[in-house]
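How it folds:
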Amino acid sequence: MAKTFLFITLCCAVITAFTGCGRRPLLPPAASNHPVFSDDLEYADLDRAIEQSLIYLRKRPRSSRITIAGRSHPTRHLIRSLLFFRNLVAGHPSSVLLNRQINTYFDIYQASGTDGYNPQRKMLVTSYYQPLFEGSLIAEGPYRYPVYGIPDSLVLRHDPGSGKKQIGRLEGCRFLKYWTRSEIEDDGRAAGNELVYLKDPLDAFLLHVQGSGLIKLPDGSIRGIHYAMKNGRRYKSIGKYMVKTGRLTLAEASIDSIRRYLATHPDEIREILHQNDSFIFFEWTTTHGAIGSLGRELTAGRSIAMDRNRFPPGALSFLSSRKPVLGNGRVISWTPFSRFVLLQDTGSAIRGSGRVDLFWGTGKDAGLAASRMKEDGTLYFLLLKQQFLQPALVN
C-alpha cells in the first residue's frame, strides 16, 4: 500500500502460542465495549471465507495449539467454532436472534488495540487489494521493469540459537544477509529469474507491497502472480520517507499522490523506492484469486491480515470501522460498517496487537478504496464455549 502504512503479503507457517509485549493481545471485552453483532454484507461470501479457513486448519497437525487470553486450545477448537458458527448463520438470523445466539454459544475476546492510553482498545484499520497491471513475458517496448522468481543464490537456514528460519546467501562458508532492493535491482543479483516485465517501476514496487496481483499480457490473457519468498530485509514505508523528507504531507500520502510525485520527479524514483530494502520474489499461480499466507484464496471484504505472532490464523472475528463510498472514481463519503471476517493473511508491515488489514478485492476501485483506509476500529474474536464442543462437528 503506497500510503503511510504499506502492506506486503507474507508467508506464515505454523499456529503457535500468541504472546504480546506487556498486555495480552486478546482480552475479555469490558462491559462498555461489548459489541452488537451485525453484518453489513448480509452474510455474502461469508460461507466461502469460512471454508478457506477450514481447509487450512484441517491440514494442521492435531497436536498444534493456540493461546487466547492466556488459555491454550487445540486447533480443532477453532474448527468446531467455525462449523458451529456457519450452521448458526446459515438461516440468516435476525439481529436480535444473532446476538442472543452468539452471546449464548461463544466466548468473545477483544483485540487489545494500539499501544499507549487506549481504554476503548481501538485498532488501526487499513486495507489492501490485488492490482491488475499490464505486462510482458519478454523485455520489449515499454516493458522494462522485471518481476523476479526466487534466485538460486537465496538460501534458508535455521538460526542455531533461536531455531527461527533465516533468509540469506552463502559466500564461501559464510552465511550472509541477502542483497537489498537496491543491490538486487542495480547490480543484477536476480538476473536470469525474470518472470514478467511491467511498464512502470512503481507498478513493480506496488506488486511487492500487495504481495499478489494479476498480469494482463499483450495477447489479452490474464495470469495470476503471488508471493513466493522475500529477501529477509526489514520493510520500510516509502510513504513515511516521503513525508519525512518533505515531499508529501501526511494527509497526502496515498498511492495516487506518490504516483503523481514520481511521474513529475523521475530522477528521484530510485532513491525513493530503494529506501525499502525489502524485496519480494514471485511465482505464477493457477488462479486469478489473491492467495493469503494460509495458502488459501482470499475473499474480498472478508479476509483480514494481522500479526501472526499475536493472533490465531484462520480464526473467526468481528470488525467494526468506517469505509469509503466511491463515486465517479473518487471517495465521495464515509460510512460505518461491521462484519464477520476471517484471519487469513499477514504482512511485514502488520505488527503488534493494534493493526488489522482488510482485503478489499481486485482492480482499480478496490485499490482506490484500499489506499484511503486508515481508520479507527474495534475487533473481536469468537471462540465456541467449551460446553458446546462436539467432536462430531470436526468432520
